[in-house]
Amino acid sequence: MNYKHGFSLVGMLISLLCVVVLSAIMMNSMNKTVTGNGEAAPSSVWGMQNQIQLQTMVQGLIADSFGRNNDFLVPSDLSESLDVQENTSANFWSAMIAQNLTTPETLIAKGDNGWVETASYSWRSINTRDGQYWDPNFSTDFNTMSNVSYAHMPLYGERLKRWWRNDARGTFPIIGNRGPRDGQVQTDSFTLDKDGQWRGWVCYNDGSIKWQEQTETPIKWMRDDDMQSDNLFILEGGDNKDDTMFGITSEMTEDGPVFIWD
Predict the structure, then answer these.
(1) For the whole prediction, is pTM greater than 0.85?
(2) 3-state DSSP call for residue 231?
(3) For all residues of the chain together, what is the average pLDDT?
């Protein structure tokens, strides 16, 4: 009698089940590696990419500052208008691209779930003879579509004078992952992880970068009001030079910045 060897139906089902189980384990491991399992993680692929992108931008600012008397790039200084209203986030990030200090791709954080999209940058619109130093179509409007994922210290007042330079005494946060309005966690902000908390990178004016697990940061410099901690996403005390602040400014008025949040 001749016997034909092969897989039985039961054997095929068992094999298929093993493949499904192994695939689930592998996908779970990949998810933790890439996304931090629903939470931002410094060792995740996205976390490391964000770190590299932010450090590249800060190092670009520092290198560029040597030709600006140690001051970091400011749109109104670049155009020589000295008009504070030019110092919005859209103009700043767009000027960063125009000065070859970053790229449209670098301004988009990997894993950003908000309304962000890489800018189709118009180099033809930049004509310094006509007083155009950046692409006016660059967007930071999270109500429609933003061309940047990151936030920065508002380019205004005493913070700008004291900290927006590479030779400031002490270190101060200047650029990082954006956060929720007024630093409020447990909201529906795209900047928060699945557990409702904020985690991200914070870059300092000396080129250093640190991972932070909350919106509150311990103060390592002397504040006039003796505060021991400071929320990164709250503008406290108006033009207080010691108050840390990350945001995306939609307008810059004589009275201060107007922020936009996702």
Answers:
(1) no
(2) strand
(3) 84
